Structure to design on (430 residues):
């Protein structure tokens, strides 16, 4: 039945003139738009990571988003987004994600639902379910490559704009994508308060984030309990053609189930574009650190928490094998532009653990751990090839292939075959 729905929806998107859904006036002004995304994914040897996976598996993901934007006046508007996320031939059942965010499946649910009120030229308020994106997805990242999206927030966001800076104050909780609950609810006990400042005409951004997890599920070194975490950080980002750069420095403090937190995250990115060469090649060097815990029994929590970072596509490799926790990533990218409407990315990643006695972390938890440290720190090498083509204003496509070659740590802690990943994605906009 889902296959029939997929092809029926493709026909609808291709055939309907959606201009009739723009600027519909009935006292207020209504605009309806959205997109429909199909992605086929293939995995080989991922069973070395999780015994629930088959050695080879493939599945089809579909995601429909319909946006309703209602403008009551120049200063007052409302946004509602309906999202349907489906999977055909899922590698694991929904029960596997009972206590976690389901990344694949969440039928027709409310993904955004917020009111926006601009009180004056400086002050704007957004209240309701919304997405947050700060620090190039590393501080607050929606995680939209995932079929359901990693983060949506039930939050109050206050934006104050001056000639000098834009200040965002945020308080809220992120939701749990669960296909058996409608509408999706927030995670119990996890609350964020944030102050994010971007200084205009300068490369500087400054932020403070407080994360309180009162669910009682934080696992410390000696007990399980609550965590109360502060993140203080700076970001420097800019472009001075042909150079571009992005630097993020974060210090994490607080308590984690009774353990004292002392952790940090670093990002260094430097790019250069050869503007005079064919295809305008861009060379990008990156170095990323998420601190690890050097001694899991000393009462100090030194594993960086990654704040609310996105976890997919260009951040930490397309294969989703590593995350901004106990991680060192050495990386070089080459980006080519054969035409204005297509690009080719070639990425090389060398991943190691920051500390050998801490774990190898995925976005969803722990892959493996060697408490003795004898396995060393080398995770391995990932190479990604990503091609993107924009056919027209309504259709674009992604094709990607990735290979991961395990290093010493993986070879000494279990199965260690090369991992392969491929995908084909088509996005229809309306």
């Amino acid at each position: 039945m889902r296959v029939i729905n997929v092809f029926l929806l493709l026909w609808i998107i291709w055939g309907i003139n959606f201009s009739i859904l723009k600027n519909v006036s009935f006292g207020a002004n209504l605009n309806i738009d959205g997109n429909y995304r199909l992605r086929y994914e293939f995995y080989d040897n991922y069973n070395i990571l999780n015994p629930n996976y088959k050695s080879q598996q493939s599945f089809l993901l579909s995601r429909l988003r319909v946006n309703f934007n209602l403008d009551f006046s120049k200063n007052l508007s409302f946004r509602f987004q309906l999202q349907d996320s489906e999977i055909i031939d899922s590698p694991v059942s929904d029960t596997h994600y009972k206590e976690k965010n389901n990344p694949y499946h969440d039928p027709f649910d409310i993904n955004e639902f917020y009111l926006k009120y601009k009180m004056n030229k400086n002050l704007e308020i957004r209240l309701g379910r919304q997405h947050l994106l700060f620090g190039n997805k590393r501080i607050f990242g929606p995680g939209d490559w995932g079929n359901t999206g990693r983060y949506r927030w039930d939050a109050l966001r206050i934006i104050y704009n001056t000639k000098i800076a834009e200040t965002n104050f945020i308080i809220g909780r992120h939701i749990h994508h669960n296909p058996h609950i409608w509408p999706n609810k927030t995670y119990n006990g996890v609350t964020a308060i944030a102050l994010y400042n971007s200084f205009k005409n300068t490369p500087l951004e400054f932020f403070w984030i407080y994360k309180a997890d009162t669910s009682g599920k934080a696992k410390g070194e000696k007990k399980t309990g609550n965590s109360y975490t502060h993140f203080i950080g700076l970001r420097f980002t800019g472009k001075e053609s042909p150079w571009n750069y992005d630097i993020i420095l974060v210090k994490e403090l607080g308590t984690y189930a009774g353990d004292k937190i002392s952790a940090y995250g670093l990002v260094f990115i430097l790019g250069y574009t050869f503007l005079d060469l064919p295809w305008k090649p861009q060379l990008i060097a990156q170095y990323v650190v998420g601190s690890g815990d050097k001694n899991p029994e000393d009462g100090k929590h030194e594993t960086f928490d990654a704040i609310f970072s996105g976890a997919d596509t260009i951040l930490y490799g397309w294969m989703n094998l590593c995350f901004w926790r106990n991680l060192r990533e050495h990386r070089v990218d080459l980006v080519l532009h054969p035409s204005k409407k297509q690009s080719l990315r070639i990425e090389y990643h060398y991943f190691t653990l920051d500390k050998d006695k801490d774990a190898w972390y995925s976005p969803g938890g722990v892959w493996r751990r060697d408490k003795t440290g004898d396995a060393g720190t080398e995770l391995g090498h990932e190479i990604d090839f990503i091609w993107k083509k924009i056919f027209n204003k309504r259709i674009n496509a992604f094709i990607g292939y990735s290979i991961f070659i395990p290093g010493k740590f993986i070879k000494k802690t279990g199965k260690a075959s090369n991992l392969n990943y491929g995908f084909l994605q088509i996005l229809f906009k309306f």
Remarks:
- The radius of gyration is 22 Å.
- Residues 360 and 366 are 6 Å apart (CA to CA).
